[in-house]
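HUMAN: Can I see a protein plus its fold?

ASSISTANT:
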Amino acid sequence: MSTDMSTERRPADPSADVLAGDGASRPRAAVHVDSGHRLGAAHPRQEGPTDLRLVPPALAAWATAALMLDVPAGWAVGIVTGAVVLGCVLLRRSRRGLVRLGRPPVAVAALLLCVAASAASAALHGADLRRGPVPGAAREYATVTAEVEVTADPRLTAPRVRGNRAVPPTVLIEADVRRVAEGDGLGVATRTPVFVLVDVGDGAGEEGDRPTGPGPGEEGDRPPRAGPAAARWLRLLPTTRLRVTARSAPPRATGDRVAAVLRVRDGRAGPEVVAGPSAAQRLAGRLRAGLREATDGLPVDARALLPGLVVGDTARITPELEEAFKETDLAHTLAVSGANFTIVLALLLGPPGLAQRIERRGVAPRLGLSLRTTALLGGALALGFVLVCRPDPSVLRAAACGSVALLALATGRRRSLLPALATAVLLLVLYDPWLARSYGFLLSVLATGALLTLAPRWSAALRRRGVPPRLAEALAAAGAAQAVCAPVVAVLSARVSLVGVPCNLLAEFAVAPATVLGFAALATAPFAMPVAKSLAWCGGWPAGWIAGIARAGASLPGAGVDWPGSWAGAALLALLTGGGLLVGRRLLRHPWWCGACAVLLVLAVVQPPPLARVIKGWPPPGWRMVVCDVGQGDALVLAAGEGAGVVVDAGPDPALVDGCLRTLGITRVPLVVLTHFHADHVAGLPGVLRGRAVGAIETTALEEPADQAESVRAQAAARGIPVGHAAAGERRRAGPLSWEVVWPPSGTGPGAVPSASTEGPNDASVTLLVRTAGLRLLLLGDLEPPAQRELARSPAAAELEGVDVLKVAHHGSAHQDPDLIRRVAPRLALISCGADNTYGHPAPSTLAALHGRGTTVLRTDRDGPLAVAGTGGELRVAGD
């Protein structure tokens, strides 16, 4: 006896991705179809109106969990008791017939019971942060010996610049404290979540962002490399137990899900492992390591992105590549999302676009598996997906939502995804209330809800206006996710991307092949590495395409606009988005107006230099020198012809100096002068080298600090850029620009005996006297008073008198030589310093000395980037 297993054909709902996407626009085809397999039915039941009954309880539980995590236990007990009592009363009244079943009291009772359960769960999880010996020790900054269990993959923190020093990255480990030492033994059992910071002290990350090729996306911009000690910590797998001795401290922000931060000051000996990871984690670790090995031979972008796209392994992602993905709202591709799980399930169940016959496509029906067996296999796949990809918020939401849909598949019930999404939210918030405060979870749910509700209507509206169906679905899905998620993204990044939708559309078609090929490489790597490498090589092409789209979009001058990073700013953006959608509906009736708006948007994003100069007035015509606003650091650009500029220092942040050069239209750099090797002058060098032809690098001969000097040399060697030492008396020219090195003396350098004035890096700063268009500019680097006094007595002292522009030494600090200021007597003084810096720069005494000579003083912390223009007879200065 045969049974017709097909389902009735209906128009596909483009929004109903089985697990949708998380945070970005991933259009998928419809899945809103009932299975026809219950009790041998020949046809499925028709799907009725969308079931929204679980939505209010899910939202109520979510809000309750977010609020109750910090509530004292007494309040929590009262709230839980009150909600349970009131819910039971309402249910009892309904059963007695005092109110009719199905009416609001029943729904309210269910909502109250969900609130009670959420409050109880949140109170218990919140209590973990307040009980046990760890919180008390953290408040006293005590040193503790503890046994901790690793709960997530360790990672290297990003390197930072603190003052003039580069702070090397540390190893960050999320863990639970399981026992705390008391006396001579580990006797006090607990379960307290903490962060463990490990100072490895072996140069981890020293090679961070070191280019090894001529351009971005090639063999350049490598991620930070771990030294041998750091590598031992980074190899730890979740569930591993360690014994650590660390100094404890409270977390920096209130409301965190950790009770303390444990800092291991000397981790060079490696971790002291008490118990190894579980068998499941060892298997997951082997799979992830196999995928990394399979991608080792790929170009740098594909090598970094493919493991992140497949299993969320972002260890190879460089800061520069990560920033490009954030600028284009493609950051979701750097981590595992719901759409990844959708693609994996599609291999088992069939393409979501053919949901009407979903059981007849895919691997499961070809193997003759029943629906229930298929659902069980899908559940095991979901469990393995979470295990290998790690339980991040979007992964948990995807797996939970998919499990609900698989349960419906097994029972023959409706597979409408809004109830599945609400169920997933409710269960996950009850399981882990901290997800209620997770931005990743919020973005995941918002994006999925947008794809299920807004995208189908927008797609239908576009099709009615003649847009091809596939393009309409893609545009609707991308636009819906962007519109709903943009306010939250603005809170996180204080920026709104103008290229997010087109970049997601262009990257979309490459996500599925990259994911499928990546998972195939993951599965074959343990037993057939050559095959895995071949699959990874194939997957590297679409992964490289996605990275190329991110880089290209981020390089556009108008890729994004700054926005208030607050909830007020998010509300304003939401209002503007709503207004824009209302206006857009009317504009769709007028193709010419739509075309005009599209042209304006393109112009705003591309910002052709002539047009940008007219509208923004920046850079001013005929500019000669620009002091970039790079915070607490120095970065200057000297005009050396069309599209060319000599860069003097690079500031502390690659992104800031890169953005400054981009706004100036600098594509060629004949020479980079690094006055000395302090991090606030050289750490931004990768931003100068990024995508530009650089002729040479010139530095001071005193190579201190040694780690920064070595970093500069490594970056230059990787790109084949020669490095030389500047010394007093050297004269050079580039286009209309000429300059003379007036400091340091030639006897300063490795192996030389320094004079009293050049004992430190500041006093060895390269000092330039620049001539351009009749102007004379004196750039002092970070010279201190001893070197300034000796400079005033040097052979070049006569040429320093009465300069037009002075770049004040050392960010305007109080350490200035009054005699040099009197001798120089500049018409204009420029100070590069960071807003609200802790050093008090510029010092009031320095400002008074300059004003006393009748000098006009401008500073980047208040005036932003500063451009000097004009000629010797007419000096002009402008700010952006």
